[in-house]
């Protein structure tokens, strides 16, 4: 970031906002701050663990979810179906961590689209 903003400029921006800090905190506490959880979708979790983690995240109030994909398409589809079943129509993002070539990304994303991903992050390497 230093190529567009010096440390001094960044500090000045932050200091300028100090008087409004409490107002921002109150706003977040009142209307909430959207965040997603990846806890439900790490690779290697058993199906039962995925189900339990989905229920826990829903109980904790999460409205957005993200899962890791890219290691094995069949496993990704199976896990996505489980998550989708648990979270219903809530947003589900997928993160491939640049594991696919361009052609793989096109093929895999077409196979995953029926599960209504909100986005697919870093599909290509």
Q: Can you tell me about this structure?
A:
There is one protein chain. By secondary structure, the protein is α/β, with parallel strands linked by helices. Helix content is 49%, strand content 16%. It contains five helices and four strands, in the order ααβαβαβαβ. It has helices spanning 7-17, 21-31, 47-59, 73-87, 102-112, and strands spanning 36-41, 64-68, 92-95, 117-121. The protein has a four-stranded parallel sheet with strand order 1-2-3-4. Strand 1, helix 3 and strand 2 (64-68) form a beta-alpha-beta unit.
Give a short overview:
By secondary structure, the chain is α/β, with parallel strands linked by helices. The chain is built from five helices and four strands.
SSE topology sketch:
Blueprint: H1 7-17, H2 21-31, E1 36-41, H3 47-59, E2 64-68, H4 73-87, E3 92-95, H5 102-112, E4 117-121
């Amino acid at each position: 970031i230093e190529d567009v903003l010096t440390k001094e400029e960044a500090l000045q921006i932050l200091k300028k906002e100090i008087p409004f800090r409490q107002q921002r905190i109150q706003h977040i506490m009142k209307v909430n701050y959207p965040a997603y959880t990846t806890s439900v979708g790490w690779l290697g979790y058993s199906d039962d663990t995925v189900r339990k983690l989905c229920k826990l995240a829903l109980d904790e109030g999460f409205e957005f979810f993200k899962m890791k994909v890219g290691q094995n398409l069949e496993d990704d589809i199976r896990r996505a179906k489980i998550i989708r079943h648990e979270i219903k129509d809530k947003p589900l993002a997928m993160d491939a961590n640049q594991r696919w070539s361009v052609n793989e990304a096109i093929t895999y994303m077409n196979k995953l689209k029926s599960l209504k991903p909100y986005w697919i992050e870093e599909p290509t390497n």
